[in-house]
């Protein structure tokens, strides 16, 4: 079996061409030329396997699709203009009026907003604690069609038992979809544990340089083809060839970056965990024994996104802390080269935080590629200024 590093770095060696570029061409075209109308009819009847129009397929994007499918041990991958484009396409394709979605109570906010919006189309959603696997069966209704989750979750970074969830879903003929962005395809492969579809936001680790937005869905030929035919083609969230090319460039260093970040995040957590100005750290590395066991089963390394609660309810201290950070920047998203901090509290959303079980002093921290000791020193000096 090919190693993941080899898949990420493999050059497309089409020796039928006069030259083979090490870095693939960016096929920057909207549409493709055919010598005869018969040729056009032949390809347009099977658009998913041919090049007709870049809203459907594109050679540069296809290189990345093949690599991501291999990395996830899936049959097929389809790229999208963003992670949300991918998630919306799944919902649009797999759900019908009258269906019910079981969603983990801890997923990315925009995905929750999508599920709530689907009510308009007669799709209902219950957000539940999927960590309590013994209760999952009781949440399933006759019309439950999809179980959707992240593992680890957004905000508290708790791992779920993929094999158990998938077994319950299969017994009830329900699709399972995981957003696997946190661990990347390098550290977790949910399809191996029976999950039907994996979603990645390419905007995070795969792109890796904070310079593109993209998404991917990986699964069986049948499911991905169905999503291509409906969610991809009709919603039209097609990735641009240039963004696919940037993501391919990011992918070459993904295993090396993930290896570094796995070590870096543990170093940073070890460096701040005994500071009494930090009330809690949320990351599987410092999770309880259940989380440790789930890490052992499902992860071959740690993503570097975590969260902390400061030991204060004072919003000024929270503000002073994030404003005093020098190496760690304030900003959304994560997975790039730069360390980031993002408080959950915006001054007016206490109720929403309480609903999600988050403290007002909850801060999402992303450990980037700066030296881990510099990140620790930065956090410490900002704590000194805030407290
Ligand atoms: N999934 C997770 C866990 C995310 O954090 C995000 C974005 O922040 C997304 C999905 C959405 O991806 P995108 O921003 O590429 O639409």
TrEMBL record:
| Annotated GO CC locations | cytoplasm
Q: Which reaction does it catalyse?
A: L-methionine + H2O = methanethiol + 2-oxobutanoate + NH4(+); L-homocysteine + H2O = 2-oxobutanoate + hydrogen sulfide + NH4(+) + H(+)
Q: Kindly provide the name given to this protein in its UniProt entry.
A: homocysteine desulfhydrase
Q: Name one GO molecular function term.
A: pyridoxal phosphate binding
Q: Which cofactor does it need?
A: pyridoxal 5'-phosphate
Enumerate the UniProt keywords alphabetically.
Pyridoxal phosphate
InterPro entries assigned to the protein according to its UniProt record, in alphabetical order = Cys/Met-Metab_PyrdxlP-dep_enz, PyrdxlP-dep_Trfase, PyrdxlP-dep_Trfase_major, PyrdxlP-dep_Trfase_small
Q: What is the lineage of its organism?
A: Bacteria, Bacillati, Bacillota, Bacilli, Lactobacillales
Stored Pfam families:
Cys_Met_Meta_PP (PF01053)
Q: Which family does it belong to?
A: Belongs to the trans-sulfuration enzymes family.
Which GO terms fall under biological process for this protein? transsulfuration
Residue positions, PTM N6-(pyridoxal phosphate)lysine: 204
Q: Which domain of life is it from?
A: Bacteria
The record's EC number reads 4.4.1.2
């Amino acid at each position: 079996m090919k190693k993941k590093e080899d898949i990420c770095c493999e050059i497309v060696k089409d020796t039928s061409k006069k030259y083979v570029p090490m870095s693939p061409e960016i096929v920057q075209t909207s549409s493709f030329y055919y010598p005869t109308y018969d040729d056009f009819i032949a390809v347009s009847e099977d658009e998913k396997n041919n090049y007709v129009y870049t809203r459907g397929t594109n050679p540069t994007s296809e290189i990345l699709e093949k690599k991501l499918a291999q990395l996830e041990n899936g049959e097929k991958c389809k790229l999208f203009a963003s992670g949300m484009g991918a998630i919306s396409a799944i919902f649009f394709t797999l759900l019908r009026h009258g269906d019910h979605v079981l969603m983990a109570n801890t997923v990315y906010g925009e995905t929750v907003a999508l599920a709530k919006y689907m009510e308009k189309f007669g799709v209902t959603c219950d957000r539940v604690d999927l960590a309590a696997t013994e209760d999952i069966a009781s949440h399933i209704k006759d019309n439950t069609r999809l179980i959707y989750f992240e593992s680890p979750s957004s905000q508290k970074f708790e791992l779920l038992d993929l094999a158990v969830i998938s077994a319950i879903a299969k017994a009830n003929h329900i699709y399972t979809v995981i957003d696997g962005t946190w661990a990347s395809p390098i550290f977790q492969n949910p399809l191996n544990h029976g999950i039907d579809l994996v979603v990645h936001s390419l905007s995070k680790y795969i792109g890796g340089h904070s310079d593109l937005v993209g998404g991917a869905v990986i699964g069986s030929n049948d499911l991905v083809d169905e999503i291509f035919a409906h969610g991809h083609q009709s919603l039209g969230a097609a990735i641009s060839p240039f963004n696919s090319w940037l993501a391919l460039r990011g992918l070459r260093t993904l295993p090396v970056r993930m290896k570094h970040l796995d070590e870096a995040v543990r170093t940073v957590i070890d460096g701040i965990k005994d500071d009494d100005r930090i009330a809690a750290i949320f990351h599987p590395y410092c999770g309880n024994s259940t989380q440790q066991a789930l890490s052992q089963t499902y992860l071959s390394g740690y993503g570097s996104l975590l969260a902390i609660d400061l030991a204060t309810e004072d919003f000024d201290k929270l503000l002073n802390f994030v404003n005093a950070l020098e190496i760690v920047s304030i900003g959304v998203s994560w997975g790039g080269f730069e360390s980031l901090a993002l408080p959950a509290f915006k001054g007016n959303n206490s109720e929403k935080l309480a609903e999600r079980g988050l403290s007002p002093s909850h801060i999402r921290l992303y450990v980037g590629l700066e030296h881990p000791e510099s990140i620790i020193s930065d956090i410490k000096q900002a704590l000194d200024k805030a407290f």
